[in-house]
Amino acid sequence: MRVLVIGGTEFVSLHLVRALIRDGHEVVVLNRGRRRERLPAGVRTIVCDRTDHAALRATLAGERVDALVDVTYAPTTGADVEAALEALAGRLGHALLVSTGRVYDHSLPIPYSEDTPRGLYWGEYAKNKIDGEDVLMRWHRARGLPVTILRPTHVYGPLNTRNNETFVFDRLVRGRPILVPGAGGWLRQLGHVEDLADAIATMLGAPTAFGQAYNVTGEEAVTQVGLVELIADVIKRPLTLVHIETRRGATPVPLGQNLVYDCHAVYTTTKVRSQLGIRPRYTLAAGLAQTFEWYLYLGLDRRELDFSAEDMLLK
Ligand SMILES: NC(=O)c1ccc[n+]([C@@H]2O[C@H](COP(=O)([O-])OP(=O)(O)OC[C@H]3O[C@@H](n4cnc5c(N)ncnc54)[C@H](OP(=O)(O)O)[C@@H]3O)[C@@H](O)[C@H]2O)c1
Description:
The protein contains ten helices and twelve strands. It is of the alpha/beta class. It has two domains: 179 residues, Rossmann fold, CATH 3.40.50; 109 residues, UDP-galactose 4-epimerase, domain 1 (Alpha-Beta Complex). A seven-stranded parallel sheet has the order 3-2-1-4-5-6-10, with helices on both faces. It has a three-stranded mixed sheet with strand order 7-9-11. A two-stranded parallel sheet has the order 8-12. It is globular and about 60 Å long. It binds NADP nicotinamide-adenine-dinucleotide phosphate. The site of NADP nicotinamide-adenine-dinucleotide phosphate has 28 residues, from helix 1 and strand 7.
């Protein structure tokens, strides 16, 4: 298939490009051209800022693609998603949108399935993603365009641009304690980036997936402290946990970019498994071990980091 990926050079979208090339697809990426050297050979880049809708229309005017995978969050509004569909109207086989599990109303009881009501618990991010999802579903119902929505949760793995698992690695390899807000009992569910890329690749052109939204993540739910303990076990480093009670207005306790917040985040994956037979290759432990190898390979354990804010909290 000829696949156009919006993004292509950072995290989820770069892993997707690699998976598509592995599977023998022809891949074109659209981005602002800042990290072209990261792309595998044979991938063509269309340079364009997706938020410039006139430029998008002009650059995509001659393109015909079997699938569009709209990955990047620029931040991407519903109007931006619609502009991409319009720019390819009549020349597009299947549109896939990487949305997020954060479209669900996280004040509701866990776990969140595809039938859980969506809401604005996560503010502007949720609003933009919900708007983007609605644009796709409108094009599906009104114009018959095959569309599929993916809702990943915390994505981890090599090249991660979010400081989550690397946050814990950074402290454990230096023998530093991990500060935990309160009991650290909020549940998380992480998904490996290669499993997400493989799931997208499997959905391309799959009629069962047309008009559907799917949660795509790993199988294991784990508390914040449970995750830290698992990482210490996997990378074989001693662990000291320091629980810090947080008061309103006090300095927040750092625990990775996306791990710190106060609510559960747990999702069912029954639909993607039963309808499409998609299941992850990585257990959480195996994925963390592989990510730690990447971290050591890049020498990230030797980089300079500033822990002064944490030292202040410890005092
Ligand atoms: N990471 C998570 O835990 C997580 C969880 C749930 C959902 N998601 C969703 O997963 C998606 C992927 O996120 P990611 O962080 O891995 O990023 P990514 O897909 O690697 O996106 C970055 C790419 O987008 C391009 N880009 C950025 N702004 C652009 C613009 N205005 N126009 C055109 N291209 C642009 C960048 O290249 P240039 O800079 O050269 O333009 C780069 O290639 C997002 O939609 C995110 O909401 C992520």
